[in-house]
């Protein structure tokens, strides 16, 4: 019996891009999947488009619900999923035809709990060029190693996002995305990776992330969000309770660096509310620095934080 993959697609105000997304999923070379379109109270033509797909293809199911945000829509899809494997695709993105076929193949061959691939950022007019490499290269990490990759600048994006991966559904037995939070993946990915026995990545950029200027991911590259800092505070508790000193050290260096950067950006913005928050996070940085600097083992990192500490931004 083939494994059933439940692909969860939250839908909200993406009428222009929705068909491209759904068509790419229905064109998968792996046939045994269900597509769960979660209409999150979209006020445009998306609900009708979703219903049309459900009428035309028996693999498509639609959930219509009141607007609750991306996390709430994903959670509704998880609760409704019939598959033993889960995937997430944002409704303005799209995927390569072999996306799920290859992820499932390496997941089973390696006995992994999560399989992921590289991400290709695309713009509105960009055309995707087929670039097949032979053979597919893969790297296998333990769950702990995969979690550590969240704090590696080169591995961060493909580690933190939910949508470039295939998951065993059992990982979500006690984990859901945080309702009402921006940057929901920051609150969730470390828990999923940490509890995995192993995680495998392939060297194919088979997830096409459409980067809109008004999108969260487009903005976050330029500006740190308080939601991300909140997520990192949750990581601190999570790793401390489990005695993960090395992960805590890596996380705290990144966290302290982001707090400092947020404070700096806020002051430069000229906006009174952001300046107020910047002052708060400047004080928080100085307090947390004194608490955690002894846990940072690498001299270069410790020196950089020392420099941040001794040159104040806010007064």
TrEMBL record:
Glycosyltransferase 2-like domain segment(s): 6-174
Would you say which domain of life the source belongs to?
Bacteria
Using the record, list the residue span of the signal peptide; answer none if the entry has no such feature: none
- Gene Ontology MF terms: glycosyltransferase activity
Q: Answer whether the UniProt record assigns the keyword NADP to this protein.
A: no
Keyword Zinc-finger appears in the UniProt entry: no
- Pfam families according to UniProt: Glycos_transf_2
Q: Which UniProt keywords apply?
A: Glycosyltransferase, Transferase
Q: Which Gene3D superfamilies match?
A: Spore Coat Polysaccharide Biosynthesis Protein SpsA, Chain A
- What InterPro entries does the record tag this protein with? Glyco_trans_2-like, Nucleotide-diphossugar_trans
| Protein name as annotated | Glycosyltransferase
User: Origin organism of this chain?
Assistant: [Ruminococcus] lactaris
